[in-house]
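User: tokens in, sequence out, please.
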């Protein structure tokens, strides 16, 4: 089940779908939060203390939202690795 902010509780028939969202992906913490009446998926870098990134959950296609967030996390990891390689060369 996804770790959620206290005020976030989906109140529709897709509750079971939200429970299938992983709480972590490659060390990044995933949470949900209700913002202006819309449910958002938020993700947090392993070395940060708050969820800096987020996007609204497409309730018609939750899988696409999750896949999009995974892509963005994978991209961030790749960019961090490239930055570390570049620093190592200097």
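Assistant: Sequence out:
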């Amino acid at each position: 089940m996804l770790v959620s902010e206290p005020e976030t509780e989906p109140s529709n028939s897709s509750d079971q779908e939200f429970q299938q969202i992983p709480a972590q992906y490659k060390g990044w913490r995933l949470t949900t939060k209700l913002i202006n009446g819309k449910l958002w998926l938020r993700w947090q870098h392993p070395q940060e203390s708050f969820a800096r990134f987020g996007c609204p959950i497409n309730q018609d296609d939750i899988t696409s939202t999750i896949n999009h967030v995974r892509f963005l996390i994978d991209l961030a990891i790749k960019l961090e690795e490239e930055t570390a390689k570049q620093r190592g060369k200097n």
